[in-house]
Amino acid sequence: MDEYGVATDNTTVHMNKLLPASVDVVWEYLTQSDKRATWLASGDMGLHVGGPADLCFNFKNLTSETTPERFLPYESNHRQHGHVTACEPPYLLSFTWNERDGRSSEVRFELKAQGDKTLLTLTHSRLPNRKEMVSVSSGWHIHLGILEDRLNQQQPRQFWATHARLEAEYEKRIPATF
């Protein structure tokens, strides 16, 4: 399985990650604020259609690295609001991402048991442009890598150094046009 996500059209990125835990454990890391905060962001997640999908990013808690200047606005207590669009515990969770000005993209997590592991399929759709596709692809890639590290009970990989490398790679991988 290729560890890199792919653009499936000009607004959607899709990636798979085989994680070293059961579906139930991965579900907890998606839906419980304290566990989600260890790899992505804390916040309320109403596990029903229409429920809140509030995320509070604190990159200072994910890495000891210095935050690059362009990401300083997101370094601590960066909040974004969305709503749950689908929820079928423990196999499917979908929510709007960063609702603002009547616009949002959508994130969908699908979980499937693979023996004692879980195949997580992430689809981020309705992205407004290629620049955003590159950014979210590299972001999801490193966040899912940190989730894998947490599940393996390992020290998480460095966020910003890995993100920069991944962003350069996705810049090459995501087509300019479809």
UniProtKB/TrEMBL annotation:
Any Pfam family the entry gives: AHSA1
Organism, scientific name: Herminiimonas contaminans
Assigned protein family: Belongs to the AHA1 family.
Name of the protein in its database record: SRPBCC family protein
InterPro entries: ASHA1/2-like_C, START-like_dom_sf
Activator of Hsp90 ATPase homologue 1/2-like C-terminal domain boundaries: 21-151
Source superkingdom: Bacteria
